Amino acid sequence: MSIIAIVALAIIVMLAGGFYVGRSRAISAVSGATARLHSLPNFHGYYVAIWTGLPAFILLAAYGMFGSGLVDRLTAMELRRDAAALTASFETALEADTETLALAETLAVLRDRADGVAEAMADLRSASGSDRDPARLEALQSEQTDLVNQLATAEDARLGRRAELRDGVSDEAAEAGASVRALAGFELAHAPRERRQLFLSDARRIATDGLASRASPELDAAAAVMRRHADQIRNLVAGIAIAIAFGGLIRTRGQVAAAFRARNHVESLVTAMLFLSSVIAIMTTIGIVFSLLFESLRFFSTVPLTEFLFGLQWSPQIALRADQVGQSGAFGAVPLFAGTAMITVIAMIVAVPIGLLSAIYLSEYAGPRFRLTAKPVLEILAGVPTVVYGFFALLTVGPAIRGFFAMIGIDDVVTQSALSAGLVMGVMIIPFISSLSDDVINSVPQSLRDGSYAMGATKSETIGRVIIPAALPGIVGAILLAVSRAVGETMIVVMAAGQGANLTANPLESVTTITVQIVMLLTGDQEFDSPKTLSAFALGLVLFVITLVMNVIALRVVQRYREKYD
Amino acid sequence: MTDTSPNPAAELPIKVVARDVTVSYSGKQALHDVSIEIPDRSVTAFIGPSGCGKSTFLRCLNRMNDTIDGAKVGGSLTIDGQEINDKSIDPVVLRASVGMVFQKPNPFPKSIYDNVAYGPRIHGLALTRPELDEIVENALRKAGLWEEVSDRLNHPGTSLSGGQQQRLVIARAIAVNPEVILMDEPCSALDPIATARIEELIDELRENYCIIIVTHSMQQAARVSQQTAFFHMGNLVEYGPTEDIFTNPRDTRTQDYITGRFG
To answer: Which residues of A are less than 8 Å from B93 in CB distance?
Structure first.
């Protein structure tokens, strides 16, 4: 790395030199009469500096990002080539091994039987009337559990046998005096994925004199290969970077002349830079969407989409062992959608009237002094961290609601209820609605107000009949944005709404939302291949789609409204 | 200091009388002691360079200056002998009898019908739907728009052309049966053909209303008005029959303005 650091430093020096050279050459090209230059001397300097530094730094950045991956790949390729003979003998051993063949056959038979049972169960489930046979269904269920167990055992046995054979081949080869490099390559070619990664990372640590988790001749051999590749690539990159920087400096230095349009070139480079920045933002979004999409697809390969979207039971605990009781796992997300919808509706019932009316007051009635104080205060409300609203809901609003209902004789109200979460979320959303609506109301042209006043309308008539209708699309847009905010809100609900996935219409019960479940599913130690954790991605995808649709509609509506007055 | 003849068209009854009207915006005086008598059933034009106070004076006549923060109006202004700057006068009631048309057409974002029915509805002029329909039709006919829009009354008012929008706004103003109609440069945003159409309309409306029009176009003032008042720097410089003002101005400032030497 130190070589790379030196190279980077050298490029910076060249870049600064390039600026100076470009500038002074431009000045001397017109012998000091800078007015004759097409571009100011500084632009010539920037031009030379950019072409000196930029390509070289891009190369270094690429090296930083992909360098170690390339080294790993080259190392693995080289080692595997050495291990080709061993690999071939392993393949023949695997093919000749009767036990492996027998196990594969057993597995195939078991899978067929499992498919048959699953089909029979599906038929029975969809059966109606006299065809229904709960007893048989139960029998089939226990048979399926049994089959799942057997399949797991058989699969374990097959993998075990494979590992045994592999170790045998490698031991034999070691005794027969095969090179350590070949043994390392064999390991890299046939070990399970996690072991391969561990092997490579250990080799990398040894190669860079770091602390490895273990040491072996194979690792040392791999480290040596890796070190060689790493050095080669590093030196190559360092050389190319310096060459590019130097080449850029020489080339652009030659271009500097009185008529050279350095300013336009710099301008187009700036444009390219701006474009790149926006592309990064867009690519990030696309990347997030795709990662959600792929994980969700993995989830939907175990749980059917229809069950997820229309199932009424949500209990994502998946059985660790097939014989575990009552832990089948149910991924019907309707209770979550319903909980989200209920809390959102409660929040909107609070936020829309208060937000809208306060916006109307602020924009139409309030004197400048009140407006000057009230608006920032409202905006502070938007800046309160949601976790603070969370305690407010949990410690103040929840108990108050329970107290109130106890007073009127309803005793079984819980502290963590949809109502308390919804109320507090509504308060949180008020500034969104009031601030956006205020802007929208203010952008209704004064000529409409004048027109209405000139007709002899009072202030409230003008507001009700002209201003609100004119601002309505914008207000609707503001409300939709607020809804998508409410749907995506997490902290308040985690703290205040409870976690029970109840499918209920009673706001006094505790409910749970999509966001809360995502938090629950992904906090703590999780393995990322069970449907339990994968379901979080499916929920995330749903959330994303909901808020996306809402935002698109809102932006459309707002846009159309803008067009009308511009 | 002002050179005015109190009643240039003696045969017509006087509708609006102003005595020493002054207006200031946040302490800055915009109008100095304007006194004028405006006859009914005729068109009176206010001309003058930008910022001369003509629009300010126009806005005094329906107290639209009330909606501007820091505006102060002094002096006496009467319509039919009734003092309108009086505290006891509700500007909302006043504006129902003094309609106003603005520089830029400002139809509400509603249907053509609802635009015209806006005033009658808030003032409760129609008890039944047929009555309202009749008011709307009459207003649109008077504004010369009925033929063009009768088959699409439920289209948005903003879908009309600029000239049609301005006639719609005039229809909206006359739907509440005002006595005075104020027009603040009603044609400045329109093309010559639409302008000609509006001028024709103003001439027709003269028979029933007292019309006061602010204009930057001297030709327009000459074409449509019977009286002309020339404002300059917040003062009413000269007021008289339009013919006299244009052919025989008494004040040199008027003459300079009319002949295009400034403004």
So the answer is: 456
Split into its structural domains, chain A has a count of 2
Residue B2 CA, chain-centre distance (Å), reads: 22
**Record: contact B106-A447, CB cut-off 8 A:** yes
What pTM value is reported for the model?
0.69
What digits encode the pLDDT tens for the residues A232-291? Answer: 999 999 999 999 999 999 998 888 888 888 889 899 989 999 999 999 999 998 999 999
CA distance A553 to chain B (A): 21
C-alpha to C-alpha distance for A42 and A65, rounded to whole angstroms: 33
Neighboring chain A residues of B64 at a CB cutoff of 8 Å: 450, 453-454
Q: Does any domain span residue A535?
A: yes
- Whether A293 and A339 map to the same domain: the answer is no
In terms of Cα–Cα distance, which of A87, A61, A503, A565 is closest to A311?
A503
* A563–B contact, CB cutoff 8 A: no
CATH number reported for the structural domain that contains residue B100 in this entry: 3.40.50.300
The Cα B236–Cα A383 span in angstroms is: 55
Confidence of residue B42 (pLDDT cuts 50, 70, 90): very high
Q: Which residue type, as a one-letter code, is found at position A113?
A: R
DSSP structural state of residue A34:
G
In which domain, by residue range, is B236 found? 3-106+178-258
Residues facing B238 on adjacent strands: B3, B230
Flag if A465 and B118 touch (Cβ within 8 Å). Answer: yes
Write out chain A residues lying below 8 Å of B185, CB-based: none
Task: Give the range of the structural domain holding residue A437, as residue numbers without chain letter.
Answer: 332-565
Q: What is the pLDDT of residues A375-386, one digit of tens each?
A: 888 888 888 898
Using the beta-carbon criterion (under 8 Å), do B172 and A455 form an inter-chain contact? yes
Long-range CB contacts (within 8 A, 24+) of A84-91: A85/A178, A85/A182, A86/A169, A86/A170, A86/A173, A86/A178, A86/A182, A86/A183, A86/A185, A86/A186, A87/A186, A87/A189, A87/A190, A89/A169, A89/A173, A90/A165, A90/A166, A90/A169, A90/A186, A90/A190
Question: Is residue A378 domain-shared with residue A475, that is, in the same domain?
Answer: yes
CA distance A409 to A406: 5
Determine the distance from the C-alpha atom of residue A94 to the mean position of all C-alpha atoms in its chain, rounded to a whole number.
41
Asked if the Cβ–Cβ distance from B95 to A454 is below 8 Å, we say yes
The CATH number of residue A491's host domain is 1.10.3720.10
Judgement on whether residues A290 and A363 belong to the same structural domain of the protein? no
* CB-CB under 8 Å, B64 with A455: no
Give me the residue label for tokens 């060689």. A228
**A337 and A289 in one domain?**
no
Q: Which two tokens stand for residue A96?
A: 């000749």
Cβ count within 10 A of residue A510: 22
CB-based contacts of A124: which residues, under 8 Å, 6+ apart? Answer: A131, A132, A133, A136, A137, A140
Q: What is the pLDDT of residues A10-40, one digit of tens each?
A: 999 999 999 999 999 888 888 888 888 888 8
Mutation for testing the A interface, residue in B64, B68, B89, B95 having most A CBs under 10 Å: B95
Residue of A455, A476, A564 for testing the chain B interface, max B β-carbons within 10 Å: A455
- Shared domain for A365 and A271, answered yes or no, is no
Nearest residue in chain A measured CA to CA from B62? A454
CB pairs under 8 A between A and B: 70
* A344 and A493 both lie in a single domain: yes
CB A255 within 8 A of CB A74: no
B157 in a structural domain: no
Determine whether the interchain pair A458/B92 forms a contact, defined as Cβ–Cβ distance below 8 Å.
Answer: yes
To test the contact with chain A by mutation, choose from B98, B122, B172 the residue with the greatest count of A C-beta atoms within 10 A, namely B122
Question: How close A463 gets to chain B, by Cα (Å)?
Answer: 12
